[in-house]
Structures are given as C-alpha cells and as structure tokens.
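Progress note, sequence design subtask.
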C-alpha cells in the first residue's frame, strides 16, 4: 500500500512542501515552519491558543480553541497543515452537557476557505487506490 502525508479525517487541510537543501538542517527547517504556522494561524484565527499534543503518532497539535485543533503532519517533504474538530476527552465530556459538535462544524466551514488560502501552496487533485496522492501547485494570486 502506498503512503502519503497523514492528517485527521474530516479536517480542513492545506498542503505545502518543506524544501530543504541540506538534510542536516531538516529539524531546524521543520521547527521554523512550525513557528511560522503558529504565528500566522494566531493572527488569522485569534481564538487559537498554543497546545502541545498529538493525534496518534503522526499528527502534531500546535494550537487549539473551544472547537478545533490546528496541527501539522509531514512525510517525505510534504506537509499537511490541518484544522479539525477536537477529539479529546475534555471536549467530548463538555459536549455531553452543552453540545459543541454542530457549532464546531459550522465554525470550521466558516474559516475553511481562509485557512486553505493562507496556508495552501498545493492542491490535491487525486488519490490512487493504494493511497498515493497527486498534487499540483496552486496558481499564484497577483494583487492589483
């Protein structure tokens, strides 16, 4: 079975590459990208607060608000920057008393296009049955 970059199911996902000229600098470049994502996401979506966590072994949570986690996943130079409904015990416990899931889905739909425009450099145009994905670069938007 093929392999591609991981991200949570039902997430809003923006793709980009992590281009590294010197493999010895991979960790530094990755952490620089993480800091850039945190800074940009917090200015784009002010309700996001720093959070250090993981969803499984591959999806790193960087930020969180009442409804969603914002994170990063990387594989072979391909990076998925994602925004997904929270999936932690505290969230679901609170949801049992004051339903949040519907509001979370509405909030995600409201910020999705801005999130993808802010972070996305690539667009997934297809995926093979073995899991390998095909991407194309998004056209550069010229400002007038």
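Output:
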């Amino acid at each position: 079975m093929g392999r591609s970059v991981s991200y949570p199911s039902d997430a809003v996902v923006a793709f980009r590459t992590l281009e590294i000229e010197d493999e010895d600098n991979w960790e530094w470049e990755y952490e620089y990208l993480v800091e850039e994502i945190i800074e940009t996401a917090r200015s784009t979506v002010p309700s996001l607060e720093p959070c250090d966590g993981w969803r499984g072994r591959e999806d790193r949570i960087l930020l969180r608000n009442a409804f969603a986690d914002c994170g990063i996943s990387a594989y072979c130079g391909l990076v998925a920057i994602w925004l997904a409904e929270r999936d932690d015990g505290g969230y679901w416990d609170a949801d049992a008393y004051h339903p949040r899931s519907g509001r979370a889905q509405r909030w995600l739909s409201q910020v999705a296009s801005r999130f993808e425009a802010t972070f996305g450099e690539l667009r997934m145009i297809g995926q093979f049955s073995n899991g390998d994905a095909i991407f194309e670069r998004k056209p550069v938007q010229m400002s007038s």
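The radius of gyration is 16 Å. Work on this subtask will continue into the next period as scheduled.
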